[in-house]
Amino acid sequence: MVTLNISRYLNRINYKGSRVPNLKVLKELQRLHLLHIPFENLDIHNDVPLELSVSQLFEKIVIRKRGGFCYELNTLFYELLIALGFEARLISGRPYDNKTKTYRKKFSHLAIIVCIEGMEYLVDVGFGEFSFAPLKVEINSIQKDERGLFTIEPYNKEYLKVSRINKNQKRAIYLFNPQPQQLDDFWEMFISQQTSPDSPFTQKRLISLATEDGRITVSGNTLITNNFGQLKTSKIRNETDFNELLDVLFCRKEKFGLNQLN
Predict the structure, then answer these.
(1) Which of 33, 36, 43, 124 is an active site residue?
(2) Mean pLDDT along residues 60-87
(3) Is 70 a catalytic residue?
(4) Dihedral sign, CA of 157, 163, 165, 166?
(5) Which is nearest to 218 in space by CA: 227, 209, 233, 206?
(6) Is 109 part of the annotated catalytic residue set?
(7) What is the pLDDT of residue 249?
(8) Rounded mean pLDDT of 101-125?
(9) Class of domain 6-195
(10) Known catalytic residue at 45
(11) Closest listed residue to residue 115, CA positions, set 132, 137, 144, 93
(12) 33, 70, 97, 115: which is the annotated catalytic residue?
């Protein structure tokens, strides 16, 4: 059975630095993870049941160079952080649904809290477009990140709310409960997200990967490139083009392959 191999995992994200569990290392690990491992739901659309065992996640994401969604990506990243000596715990979240203007159900998102020198940080490599660096769990402060401005505020007795600030307006991203959770606590929602017609992950195939200057996303049969706010969309003409695009998004081929999809 395949187990988590730290060196192979770090090679997957092209990390070659220190392994000392400090904030500098955590920031670089998160950044490189986002640049090399995509957020994706292809197995759901190919009727492949997802698993949450460390060995199966490692085999899928590291060895086969695939991606995953929050439960997969953040679970495996959490295991890497623990193996490196970080003090970390799994937490639950409720993403904001722009269509319904409400927050999704409990345990519909899985994220991580890391404690370093008495300060807690929200760490997330499984949400698509989000912060590149860990966000300090510091109430009502504005935090500047490569991907924008973020703030964390009280929501009620159970949750904190993380928002992005754009042109002096706050846009809610998700609620999170900072209390530690066990992986089993997410199981019901993990299954529902794969099977329910109401799940955002069963609606259409989605692959999204951060780049140094933006993001590349496949939504259904549409390719979206976002370079510092300049959006460009094009249709994926056939499965050959789609498969070539997968090689790019899963870091198996250089990004020049995107030129063929104009």
Answers:
(1) 124
(2) 96
(3) yes
(4) negative
(5) 206
(6) yes
(7) 80
(8) 97
(9) alpha beta
(10) no
(11) 137
(12) 70
